[in-house]
Write a structure and sequence with these properties.
By secondary structure, the protein is α/β, with parallel strands linked by helices. Helices cover 48% and strands 11% of the residues. It is built from 14 helices and six strands. A six-stranded mixed β-sheet has the order 3-2-1-4-6-5, with helices on both faces.
Length: 324
């Protein structure tokens, strides 16, 4: 299943960013620390090319700290880019944003040249919570649902520091299938855009290999050691979890839809432990494969179009003879 979600208000966000970025000094992109590669918007990178970038790995308190360090090193190695980890609910770490922006654009500051910052990110990444933390109030609506913010708004953090908040935005076509699953598992995709059971199975397939102990502990799977769980089919593991949590239909059959909802809720809430669903190396492989397949699709489409144009059409005289 290919997961895609780009509702109408995201087109408006795309246009707004295109116009706003002309007057922006620094672009802050909030990433989900549990999926730093999958939550980085490639369309945003194109729209903001040439502007210093601050990558903020938000929700780092839910992510694997060792993997977070690897992702920070990855992004900090990129030109004109800084990366920091953050838990948006904590006031002191949030102030790192202001300092990092001044380091990326040292010539901005003061009333004559105020710092102008654009903050972007995928839906449900914690942007509104972060802004409320920075401002000490409730400037932005929050909620555990993708697509809460739908309008651009300007926020004054200081007399010489302006922050433009934009609605969460994905991109029109996700070419990395694994990214689609990870985004759905994190809550960045609208519920109607994916099959929850399929996403939960994909999620469990990764968790059992890398974070099996956390899964076993949370769902009280005392009968499963690491090796047994790793060899277990994803469907069997989801079935077992459903039985443990009482997600049953008649005659002892497991309600797999309910079991899938339980798995994703436990992941999103951080109840399975500190988890990161991808490493820089894994994501690079997924992206390369996605680009390869995308190029193949484009080539096939172009070949079909060329074949159609080159198809010989009978002229009027030939057509008349054939009709006769």
């Amino acid at each position: 299943m290919a997961i895609q979600w780009f509702p109408g208000h995201m087109y408006s966000t795309q246009k707004a960013i295109t116009e706003r970025v002309k007057d922006i000094d620094v672009v802050i992109e909030l990433l989900d620390a549990r999926l730093p590669g999958s939550s980085a918007n490639p369309m945003l990178a194109e729209l903001t090319a040439g502007r210093p970038s601050l990558k903020v790995l938000n929700k780092q308190d839910l992510a694997d700290p060792e993997r977070t360090a690897r992702w920070l090193a990855h992004y900090n190695a990129l030109p004109a880019t800084r990366a920091i980890g953050l838990d948006a609910s904590q006031t002191t770490p949030a102030q790192q944003l202001v300092k990092a922006c001044h380091e990326l654009s040292p010539n901005r500051g003061g009333m004559a040249k105020p710092m102008r910052v654009l903050i972007c990110g995928i839906p449900n990444v914690g942007k509104s919570t972060l802004i409320n933390t920075l401002t000490g109030g409730r400037k932005a609506k929050t909620g555990d649902e993708a697509g809460i913010t739908k309008l651009e708004q300007r926020i004054t953090l200081a007399d010489d520091f302006y922050l433009w908040d934009t609605p969460g935005m994905l991109w029109p076509r996700i070419i990395v299938p694994k990214s689609g699953y990870n985004l759905a598992a994190s809550g960045a995709v609208g519920r109607n855009a994916f099959d929850e059971e399929e996403v939960a199975l994909e999620l469990l397939g990764y968790l059992k290999m890398h974070y099996g102990a956390g899964v076993a502990a949370r769902f009280k799977l005392v009968e499963l050691d690491a090796a047994t769980m790793a060899d277990m089919k994803d469907e069997a593991l989801l079935d077992t979890i459903g039985r443990k949590r009482g997600a049953l239909l008649g005659k002892g059959k497991v309600n797999l839809q309910k079991a899938a909802e339980i798995v994703m809720h436990e992941f999103r809430a951080g109840n399975l432990g500190r988890i990161t669903l991808e490493t820089p190396e894994e994501f690079a492989e997924w992206l390369a494969e996605g680009q390869r397949r995308d190029a193949e699709r484009a080539a096939k489409k172009a070949a079909r179009g060329k074949k159609g144009k080159n198809k010989v059409q009978p002229d009027a005289e030939t057509a008349s003879e054939e009709d006769a």
